[in-house]
Design brief:
Elements: H1 2-21, E1 24-33, E2 44-47, E3 53-55, E4 61-67, E5 74-78, E6 85-88, E7 98-100, H2 107-111, H3 121-130, H4 132-135, E8 141-152, E9 157-169, H5 176-179, E10 180-192, H6 199-209, H7 226-241, H8 243-248, H9 268-271, E11 272-282, E12 285-294, E13 311-320, E14 326-335, H10 338-348, E15 352-363, E16 366-378, H11 394-404, E17 406-418, H12 421-430, H13 445-448, H14 458-470
Amino acid sequence: MKFQSIRLFIVVSVLCCFANANAQKDISNTVIDFTTQMPIESASVYIENTTIGTVTNTDGKFLLSVPDEHVSDTLVVSSIGYKSFRTPIDDFDETFSIYLEEDVASLDEVLIVGSTRPKTGNEIVVRALEKLEKNLPQQAYLQKGFLRHKERNKKEYKWLIESAITLYDSSYAAGAEEFLKINVDENRKSYDLRDVDSLFSYYTYLKNTRRMNLKSRQMRRDTIQTASLINAIKWNDERINGLDNLFKSRLNLVRNSNNVGALFGKNVLDKHQFRLDTVLVDDGRKIYKIEIDKGEDFAGLNTPGIYNEGFAPKGWIYIYWDNYAIKKVEYELIAASDVQKKRSKSLFGTTLNHKLVLTYKEYEDKMYPSYIYYETPKLVNVGDRSSDRLYKETDKLKEEQEEQFYYTTQEILFTEIIQDPTEVKQELNSLSWDEDIFSPRVYNKDFWKNYNVLLESKEEEKLIMDLSSRASLFKQ
C-alpha cells in the first residue's frame, strides 16, 4: 500500500510539472488611436526582451499566449508614429482598451543634425542598404512562425490553410536559393471550396509543362478529367503562392537585396525613387518615413514561367534614424507598361499585381522578420470575360465579375528566434524541409494548444465559418 502511494505521488508530481511547463496565460484586447478613436491595425504586441509576440488585426484586436515563466515580465504595445504602451503582464487589465497617442519628431530638427548625415530619401535608403550587412543576422538561425493562406473572390473565401512553419537562414551574406530553407511543421485548417473548373490555369499548365499550343477559348470543362484539373491547380498554386517563391525570390526585398538583379539591389534608383516624407517615433526612437515611387525604368520580378514584368512600384519604407536599420516596408507593384496593363485587367480585373508588407523586429542588435503580408491576384476562369456583352446585361456581368476574379493573401507571424548553434544544427538535420503548404496533413490538436496564431477579424471569422461549414475537402 505504501509503495502504491509513493508511485501515485510520483505520477501526480510529474503530471503537475508537465502542466506547469506548458501553462499559458492568454491575454487579449483592442488597440485604438487616442485621437481618431479608430482601431490600429498591425500594431506590435510582444513580451519585452523576448521574441514572443503578435500583431493586431484589422479590428485592432489581438490575442497573445504568454508562457507561465513570462507572466511577471512586461507587455509592450507599439506602432510606428505612436507612443508605446507598457504594463506588467500579471497586472494586465482586459476590461479597458489600449489607447496609443501620436508621437511625431521634428523633421527640421533631424535634418540639421550632422553635416555627414544623408538628407534626401534616396540618400537615406541607399545608406540603409549599405548598412544591411551590419543590421541583419550574420550567423545561422531558425525562426518559428504561423502562416495563414487565404484565397477568395469579392464574395467569399474559397480556400483556407493555416500552418506552423520553421525558417532556416544561414546568414544575410549567403544566397537564399541555396542557404535558406522552409519547413511546414503542422497544418491546422485546410478547407477548400474552389471551383474545379480553372480552365485558364489548365491551359497555362499544358502550355508550360507539355508544350501544347492550345486555345483556352476552345476548351470545355466536360471534356477534361477532374484529376487533370486538380494537377493544374496545384501546379498553379506552387508557382505563384509557394513559400519558396515568397522567401527566395525578389519579393524578399531586404533579405535578398544582395542578389543579382534584386529590386533593392545595386541599381535600386533605376526603378525606384524615394522621397523623405516625415520623421516619426517608434518605441521612443526616431524613424524616417519615406515614400516609394517609380523610377525611370519598369520594375519586374522575373518569375520563371510567369510574365511578371512592366510594373511601377509605390509604397512606404520606414528606417531608424540612429542605425539606418529597415523597420518596415509597404510595397506595391502596379501594372504600368501597356502590355502589363492590358494583361492585368483582362486576367485579374485589377492593376495591383503584388502587395507586400515586411515588418522587422530588433533582437540583440539584429533585425529579424517579424510579420509578412503578401497579396496577389490568381489566374482562374470563372464566368464570362467577354468585353462585348450587351449593356442590358451590365448588372449580371458585374455580379459575375465579383465571383470570377480571385486573389490570395498570405500572412506570416514569426514568434520565436533560435540562435543556439547546437539547436540550429540539430533541427537543420532532423526536419524534412518540405515547403509545400498545399498538401493536407493530419491535424495535431495537442500541438496547437499553446501555439501563438494570428487573430481573425470579424469579417474573417464570418467568412471562415461559412467556408468551414460548406467545405468537404478536409475537416478536423
